[in-house]
Fold each of these.
Amino acid sequence: MNYKINKLDSTRLLDIGGLVLSGGRPILAIILAFLVSAVMIIIQGANPLEAYSAMLRGSFGSVAALANTCVRAAPLLLGGLGVALGVKAGLLNVGIEGQIYVGGSAAAAVGIMPIPVAPWLHLVLAVSAGFLGGAIWGLIPAYLKAYRGVSEIVVTLMLNYVGIQLCSLLVHEPSPLAEKGAFFPQSPPILASAQLPILIKGTSLHLGIILGLIAAIILAYVLFYTPFGMRTKMIGQNPEAARYAGVNVKKQTVVALILSCGLGGLAGTGEVLGLKLRLFDYFSGGLGYDAIAVALMANSNPVGVIFSALFFGALRAGAGKMETAVGIKAPIVQVIQALAVLFVIMIGFVEYNRKSKQDKRKEQMPEDTIYGSELNK
Amino acid sequence: MDLNSINDFLAAAIRMAAPLMLVGIGGVFTERSGIFNIGMEGTMLIGCMVSVYVSLVTGNLWLATLAAMLVGSLIGLIHAFLTVTRRADQIVTGAAINLFALGITNLLNSQLYAGFEYRPRVTMYPIVAPEVLQELPFIGPILFAQPVIVYLAFLLPVLATWILYKTSWGLNIRAVGDHPHAVATAGLSVNKLKYQGVIISGMFAGLGGAALVLADLGLFATGMTAGRGFAVLAALVVGKWNPVLVAAACILFGAADAFQLRAQTAQFAIPYQLFVMLPYLLTIAALAGLVGRTVGPKTVGKPYDPESI
């Protein structure tokens, strides 16, 4: 059985035509987005070629630029993987933003605690706390989805605000995580032993991007080459058939969603332990929503997520250089990224996916809506 | 709290609920027609900016309002095209609209007030009640010293309820969200009804954005909607997709918002963050079936495929 699964998947992986096609759509969308943005840049009185080359220099032009790109890509990569894992299981986790805050808070709680263990162990504990924080947070939508038939979409969306406020609550006195008498609501600094190590001296490039790459490879392996991955994809494509095949759909849903939320927590962990080095109010500022775009651009393929996270990271890293070089304001990169997403949707592999999924799902209508289900009646 | 600050709080609660209530009406129509629109948040933000821009250029408050509604409808049209005609994922499309709105408003923010030394406040909606009424003790400031848009926000849910439950078009909108195939069998265009629902939600989101600026603040700030569009999504669940109940939920959420602002400044015993969380926790509780039965329109979130039965 196992052998057969591997065989099936490896043949699918080697489908070069399909790979080119699925890579072609986002690339076409990105080109279109750059073209439309070029018009906006011309209207604002600058040369788009100059603007884009400045952006390229700012994102890949030097070691520092490359480091900046990777720093910005790290949370998008981990968050994007979280969304991608959910999508593979037929679950849309739009709550990465909240999981970033909860995971970041949990990591910070361990990171500021002087635990008498070896430094590497302290770091491992803090990172695990971040993952677990996100995962435990994910129990809420997972339970509601699997056992009460409540859509994970609305619950994770609503939990974003709860997570953001929870973090805010934790950095305000009298919370134990808040720094006493600080001018700004923040936690004490993360202890050196729990900080993610810096990879290149003189830059802020921390271990987060490596964590993301490892997670992507593990996720790709698990999804394509293990029975667990097979079960996950089965409940995503056709839960009814999965149940006939002996998959415990409820359990698999819970586990997949918890892992997805844990990856969201890990995204926040990297930010807190590697970049901000304290817990702050509103420290993410929308990374979790960008993670949805990252996963979408990659059609939820873990390896593709690496490239799409690097692309989004590069856009952000290059924005500052472009602003100083040609005077176009940095938020143009937000417009480029949103346009790229809209063009991907317009070109339509999402539709294609939904359609093929729907064809397989025709039999089981009731559980498929955003709100409630038959169970809830 | 003394009587004065209670009075002040209630007046603010009503004023802050008005934009939510307006967006909520549109939300009812789009979700009843079977299309989920989380892009209302971004649409609202763009509505804020458009209304400030038109107001600065023309100096006319009503033109500014109309422009915000028009641009909102346009965004609704895009959402409808992608989700109804192209059958794209409704959540992803809405999220993309939010990203775009955030990007474009951040980009244009510095140019919005170009030529002004400081950010001037634009003309606000007038307060129309006679001064005698405004000066009534206690209820005066709450009921009568409100900008005119607030009364509109209270009237429209009643009108929307009438349209939804007493007209045949309203019946069609409700039917298309629950049983699109039945609507198609009856010879009506499912897609047309869905387009109408989504465009209405865009229009009202634009209006809600205008109301946020022109009733309360008078100027644009980046990210100023701060999740109000998502709060409306929550209100739709708590209000069970009924315009009047949704409006009531919006008033509750507006009150929570007004209260947290006050709790932030006054050293209040309960952390203000709990009040910000309240609407979202309430929504999850409602969905989980902890506070009565909540079942949404049956096909929300699913693309309509005429060939699948």
Amino acid sequence: MQQPGRAAEIKAIGIGKSFGSFRALDNLSLNIGRGEFLTLLGPSGSGKTTFLMILAGFVQPTEGKLFSDGTDITDRPAEQRAAGMVFQGYALFPHMSVEANIAFPLKVRKKSAADIKKRVGEMIERVGLIGHEKKLPSQLSGGQQQRVALARALVFEPGVLLLDEPFSALDKSLRGQMQAEMKRLHQETGTTFVFVTHDQSEALALSSRVAIFNHGKLLQVGAPDEVYDRPDNRFVAEFLGEINMLPLKGVKPADNGSTGLCEDRAVNMHCKAEKVRGDAILAIRPEHMSIAREAAAGENGIAATAIASTYLGAATKLDLTTRQGAKVTVSVPNEVAAAALSKGNSVWLTWPAEKGFLLPDGGQ
Amino acid sequence: MRGVLSDRMGAALLMAPLLLFLILAYAWPFLGVVKWSFTLPTPGLGQYQALLTDDLVQSVFIRTLRIAAIVTVVSVAAAYAITVVWVRGSPAQRLIAEFCILVPFWISVLTRAFGWVALLSNRGLINTWLQSIGFISEPLTLVRNEFGVVVGMTHFLIPFAVFPLASAMRSLDDRVLLAARGLGSSRMRTFWTVFVPMTRSGIIGSALIVFVFSLGFFVTPAILGGGRSVMIAELIYLRIFQSPDWGLGAAISVVLVLFVGALMALLFRYVKPKQLI
């Protein structure tokens, strides 16, 4: 988090934080690679913001160590770490112009007036704020304030940029625009980005890796498709999007993955049955299931009855019940949904073996 | 009440006794004072002309402005420090600060003025102590001059300066201070370049309220000034009750009220009334 112009590599080892008897963060170990775009994802109170504040140096961990490029920075105060930070609500200096806000970190570093002028000018151009230099934050729109906050946090070329739910106050269309802009800034600067959000689609869209938090614990870290398609546990599976869970019996390893009984029919999974044996849960995303007249021998399938549909425009969400009463939701083309509903009786739900994954039975 | 009286009617009725009292006890008699200033001893603008030429009146006006300005600077600076502790300190620090701010409120202005006399007079605590440790040989003149007046008034006015400052500091977003530190600014620099400018409205409100109060001070300057450091309010008293010159006393009063009124108008441009409590 020091040498300007160079992305930092951060290593957290066994970080924990207690506020009185409340355990905000528990035994967290995580490596953040140079130039990576890491998202910390979780519901409120999951510990993701506490971890960000520990990275920034605003919160002192109760235990554990933090390294930046191999240097122990656990006890280093925030002003000496100089990670760029964008706060929720932006936290711009209300009494300073756009220009003065962006110049602030450079003035603190005692850069020459000419250097400050040049770098502030470049940054203003880069975030598209030309013509707004002399305005006060209160005279700007939410999106423009966001850009000032980004410019101010990046102008001194920090090794890492920390972002605390920066888009939560923006409306949906502006959010999309700012997300694209942030991705561009990440590519242009090459800096390590650590981004906090509770919005799973934002996390999946932006990051090179996602770290999912719940109740102060880091549950899983991985590339977006990795955590979405192969979650380690039920919380991650459910938090990242809608998911169907079917009870599975007699799970055991098989050639090329594992096998088990789903409502008395044998099904195959490509994933290994390492962590689970016997009873387990088979999880499948709604968009990975399709409706068929019947399932061929050897194909994964389960019989179900369509009970309701929700028209979503591009597709229809169809709710079904299996013979043994499990509820399943699928996302299918509109005409397929209509056909399934009009039949009134049994259809088959099928899915490819690589799209179903195993979760331990019950809870996490 | 609801359904019988509209909210506005209810509010008007609740305020009526106070308004009536202010009109009868304050506005109406003041109109009488305005009338005197134009009619005594002879009708005309003579008293206002005298104000412009009378050396004594002018020197008292200048002294009043000077004392008020010094008291304002000292009070606001001291209040700022104590308010920072009161609003942002640890729970124990807050309690101590609150105690220091509120206790003076419970002691009468007269008691406090005499208290300062006991501390500051030639044979008072401070002089006898300084002499006993051999720091000075002759007592310092600490009362019956402007110094004593400034000390007494500052002590009285600090709590009033605290409230607008506290209100400004409480409404400040903590994340802005964190942002400054995160961007590399030391605590000291953050205080001077971010915290202080962001409490500007509180400083202005606090300074104006202290200044306005100082202009009309009577008891403290009368006791701690000992007749040698006469301020405007005391001069009005002397003109009305000692050297009966009601017309001039009335004219000074009118000028003072207009001046204070203008300052109050300025005050409410920067601070909402509820921030002053």
